[in-house]
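input
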Amino acid sequence: MPRDELVAHVSTLTRATELPLNVDSERCYPDDPGGVTEMVALLGAAGAAGFSIEDYDPATGAIDDIDLAAARVAEVAEAAHALEEPLVLTGRAENHIRGVDDLVDTIARLSAYRDAGADVVYAPGLTRLADIAKVVAVGIPVNVLALPGGPSLGELDSIGVRRVSTGSLLAGAAYGALLAGARELQHEGTSHYGATGPSRETLEAAFGREGSAG
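output
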């Protein structure tokens, strides 16, 4: 999405919750005016607590050269840590969700991002506990993407993982429930799907009385 749209979403979310907000900021928009430094300033002003930068370039469909990617992490880290309220920077190696199953390269990249100033490292797509343990050995806090068939939170905790993301899984589960309910209504003419939804009290607590009204 465009940079301004992302920042607007961040502002909306930070007004809605007191929880620290981490932002998936893709490549930090290096080609937009002001580049990655301006992106960091915008995220800080919008109230984010942290953000990530990844090494996949959608324009080329390839992973950036490691030296280029590390240099960009260094630039972003300097900007993030210079703010009055420094932001937590996560350096992402995109290999394993982009079809590059090369753990050695992933660890080299995460080590480079650590040395460039990242506070957290992240290699989404890993599902083998032994592989994740090798990433943890990089020596700074590691984020892991929870995936079907992947390790449990307890297993991840046992090897020293510090943070877990759900990615699109929770949204996908919600969309699945929506589709299942729509199919029941269309084909069976019933609304039994409604019995498994959250209570009105739960919705009102989350969204307020008006936001939960049907």
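quick obs: The mean pLDDT is 95.
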